Amino acid sequence: MKKKTNILLIYTGGTIGMVKDYKTGALKAFNFEELVKNIPELKQLDCNLRGVSFDDPIDSSNMNPHYWSVIASIIEEHYHDNDGFVVLHGSDTMSYSASALSFMLENLEKPVIFTGSQLPIGDLRTDAKENLITSIEIAALQKRGKPVLQEVGLYFEYKLYRANRTTKINAEHFEAFDSLNYPPLVESGVHLKVHQNYLIKKVTKNKSLRVHKKMDNRVAILKLFPGINQNVLQSVLEIPDLKALILETYGAGNAPMDEWFLNAIKKAVENGLHIINVTQCSGGSVFMGHYETSEKLKEMQLVNGKDITTEAAITKAMYLLGTGVPDKLFKTIFETPLRGEMV
Description:
This protein folds into two domains: 5-211, Rossmann fold (3-Layer(aba) Sandwich), CATH 3.40.50; 219-334, Rossmann fold (3-Layer(aba) Sandwich).
């Protein structure tokens, strides 16, 4: 007889866990223990479901590294008793959290799927039920007694993406997320279509899960724009104790060639600031040296963000700083794919 898989649901907060008070129109968190009562379709899934919840569920706008550590700790505590995990999370910062967890969970050999919804479960046209049910179904997929998915994913509106490749693209449509530089891992139609070729291939198996809970938030993001002035740049570069800066440049990694701009960047790098060049375009990659406007940045040894998302870049920087990577190795390790987050 086939053994049922054990799936743990982790509720952090967000719209997916809200129900509407039809008298007042206000949203309130539903009783997580009554999940099956709210969604009777869950009884049809061939798996054992258990749930844990944050003591005080939060709006995802309040998400921060402390809560990432809480999620990681819950997974660590329940790792051996479960075959997969589904994290219910508000959509606004979901790509940041899911990217962070992908780095924090080293040697992961089980699925961790983030999902949420644009409408509460009780709404007439809610997307919450489909997102939740399919996320659980994917987390429960097994092949020869092993989980099909062995990485952190993000499921929304019929598609499962690699979590650290995603970004939120729409605040109103059900298709709230996209992964412009990497294809979906699973697509949900009449059947679940798993794209095996796109899944992370484990080079070394049977390694114990390592959970990294220290994320160093001495980081910042600066998006270039036409007309950016010296005071703005200097105020960011001179933030006390700043360790890493995500510099969102134009197109394939291009920046202004003004002398004051280049001198400020060069001085900051020489003073030990890790500056990571990522494109502010939704899709595409940094290609430093392809144009004259990025050649100088390449010469200054800026970290090449390649096709990484801003969400993955900021969380990868926090992760590397938190693990105490030596300054001289930061650039090399950042430019190396760790969890399939870049080419």
